[in-house]
UniProtKB/TrEMBL annotation:
InterPro entries attached to this UniProt entry: Beta-lactam-related (IPR001466), Beta-lactam/transpept-like (IPR012338), Diverse_Enzym_Activities (IPR050789)
Protein name: CubicO group peptidase (Beta-lactamase class C family)
Pfam families: Beta-lactamase
Domain of life, source organism: Bacteria
Species for this entry: Natronoflexus pectinivorans
């Protein structure tokens, strides 16, 4: 897992940093119609159901650009074969038997005959899509071409064609190519199968589509981010901007820290803080609402028994509904420092901690620091006993989000992380959005650190959740804890924008998305929807300096911000998705230039300006 991650990072960096060949800047736009699907058994193209089966990519030759783009849709291991080394081909046949869905890419048609036989055998025995990065004439000389059930060609080999082929394969773009000539008795002039564009991202190709808009927007962003970094708003960041389902901007800037010169890469994972609220428990609560497992207007204590009234224990939260809680209308206190009771005069109390994993101490707080399992009871007790405000106004609180994972586990009978990954992330092709990334095989080198925590952990928080409440829950919480990159968060936001579907997968009906995105209590001057933040109720009457999230934001737009320096936003009216990730709290949360410069909202307004001028 870790080796695969590093190889993938290298390929992504190589693809994004390599200068485009001068000739490719002037390739004709007709090449966009040269990717041709010649056979499509069982409608294998575009690839659907990314959560079903074990995928692998086999490349004969070199297809770095193709594999890098493919990995943004679906990460899978890469098996490379030298065109002149037949032994290598046969040595991986047994390994590939462990997989049941293959993407086979042939970069060079001039290969050893034994390799041709091995590839043809793979295509027959395992569900495969075979791509030739070449023109159709080469097909006549390939052994077993007639037996390949799913076959596509790119019309030649260059960076742009590799990129296009990957996007067509996963439905980011439709295939419309037709053969300009006959190929022996195999294919006739005009042959080609049209494929559909799925509701997945397509990605901007430099020098071609949307190029003027891309360069205009990118030049503004480059200068703005350079200034923000120089002002120490954050050491580095990732940005994704999409319009009408096409990713126009997908960039990484700066470094992991101000001292360490590790550059930010597009695959790096950031602690997204409160963005977790709409990326973790919320989509599951939406699914549970859709199948009527939960009722938004029922007392939340019906699902979370700890808040029920008991004979000798009254609860001030027994009548609160999930609807009230999701819009922060329940009057709960904003936050509780749960860790305070585990320390005495700045020292960790042995009754609560161990320096190594033990059966009763499994909540990993840091390297060689484990919290007692039973401390969860105190967390839930403190939440239950916390006061409730009588004020009818909105009061932002993290407390109910702390218990949503446990509620979801009780209602589904499945571990919260498992149900989240299996039912939400994997169907969307999301593999770089996880809790506790260090426990999932990721390296610290691909995770920018957050704060030097002098109050609680007394160390640099790196690869573990920054939020102290989520930390005492073992890093898995509904209020914080997720780590992600911009691409995978962008997929989730595009799913929301689509009304609950993405890439052919329907997670919940459109009417559920519409209800969760509706402002629930405008009469109480509460701008929020169910889980989502929304623009000011009078946003169109404000100025650029006091609008939220931006002056151009439509009332239908929604998203969330995170304390670590993150933001996600989507706008159905303008069909935009925006993701900004940074570690602005490094090395200290006192660094607040990101707010002084209004970085997150200013970038969003730049995107609106671009959309409104098109």
């Amino acid at each position: 897992m870790k080796v695969f991650n590093l190889i993938l990072i290298f390929l992504i960096v190589l693809t994004n940093s390599s200068a485009m060949d001068e000739g490719e800047k002037h390739l004709p736009d007709t090449l966009f119609t040269e990717v041709t699907v010649l056979r499509n058994h069982d409608d294998a193209i575009p690839v659907k159901h990314l959560h079903k089966g074990r995928f692998a990519c086999v490349v004969v030759g070199n297809a770095d650009v193709f594999y890098s783009r493919l990995s943004l849709y679906k990460e899978m291991p890469l098996f490379g074969i030298s065109p002149k080394n037949p032994g290598m081909a046969f040595s991986i046949l047994n390994v590939l038997n462990e997989y049941d869905r293959l993407v086979i890419v042939i970069e060079s048609s001039f290969v050893d005959k034994k390799i041709e036989q091995a590839i043809s055998r793979l295509a027959r025995e395992i569900q495969s899509v075979v791509l030739f990065l070449d023109d159709a004439f080469r097909l006549m000389h390939w052994d077993g071409i007639g037996e390949m059930p799913t076959l596509m060609i790119s019309g030649g080999n260059c960076r742009v064609r590799q990129d296009l082929a990957a996007q067509v394969l996963f439905g980011g773009r439709a295939a419309t190519g037709r053969l300009p000539y006959s190929v022996g008795n195999l294919f006739q002039e005009g042959d080609g199968i049209s494929t559909e564009k799925l509701s997945r991202f397509s990605y901007h190709i430099p020098g071609h589509d949307d190029d003027e808009a891309h360069h205009h927007l990118k030049s503004k962003i480059d200068g703005f981010i350079s200034h923000a970094i120089s002002e120490q708003a954050f050491p580095g960041c990732q940005i994704l901007m999409a319009i009408n389902g096409r990713v126009l901007i997908h960039e990484a800037y700066g470094h992991h820290t101000y001292m360490d010169r590790t550059p930010v890469h597009l695959l790096d994972l950031y602690d997204v803080a409160s963005v977790t609220k709409i990326a973790g428990p919320l989509p599951l609560l939406m699914k549970l609402t859709a199948n009527e497992t939960i009722n938004l207007d029922a007392a939340f204590s019906h699902y979370w028994s700890d808040w029920r009234n008991r004979l000798f224990r009254r609860s001030n939260k027994s009548d609160l509904t999930l609807r009230q809680l999701l819009v922060h209308q329940g009057g709960l206190v904003p936050y509780i420092n749960f860790y305070a009771g585990t320390k005495d005069d700045g020292m960790f109390v042995r009754r609560f901690y161990r320096h190594q994993y033990e059966e009763r101490f499994t909540l990993e707080i840091d390297d060689h620091l484990y919290l007692r399992n039973r401390y969860l009871r105190r967390v839930y007790r403190d939440i239950r006993r916390s006061p409730v405000s009588e004020n009818a106004g909105s009061r932002y609180s993290c407390l109910s989000f702390l218990v949503y994972p446990s509620v979801i586990e009780e209602l589904t009978g499945i571990d919260y992380e498992e149900v989240l990954y299996e039912n939400i992330y994997k169907p969307l092709g999301i593999s770089r959005m996880v809790y506790n990334p260090l426990q999932k095989g990721f390296y610290r080198e691909e995770i920018p650190p957050t704060e030097m925590d002098i109050a609680f952990r007394q160390t640099l928080v790196h690869g573990r959740v920054h939020d102290e409440a989520a930390a005492v829950l073992g890093g898995v919480s509904g209020n914080a804890g997720l780590f992600a990159n911009a691409n995978d968060l962008g997929k989730l936001m595009q799913m929301y924008l689509n009304g609950g579907h993405y890439g052919g997968e329907v997670l919940f009906p459109e009417d559920i998305m519409a209800e969760f995105n509706r402002v629930q209590f405008p009469e109480l001057d509460n701008r929020r929807a169910l889980g989502f933040d929304k623009p000011h109720l009078d946003n169109n009457e404000r100025t650029d300096n006091n609008a939220f999230p931006a002056l151009g934001a439509d009332a239908s737009s929604f998203g969330h911000l995170g304390f670590t320096g993150t933001m996600v936003w989507a706008d159905p009216e303008h069909q935009i998705v925006y993701v900004f990730l940074s570690n602005r709290i490094h090395p200290s949360r006192s660094h607040n230039a990101i707010s002084r410069l209004r970085v997150r909202t200013a970038l969003l307004q730049m995107l609106y300006d671009e959309v409104l001028t098109q």
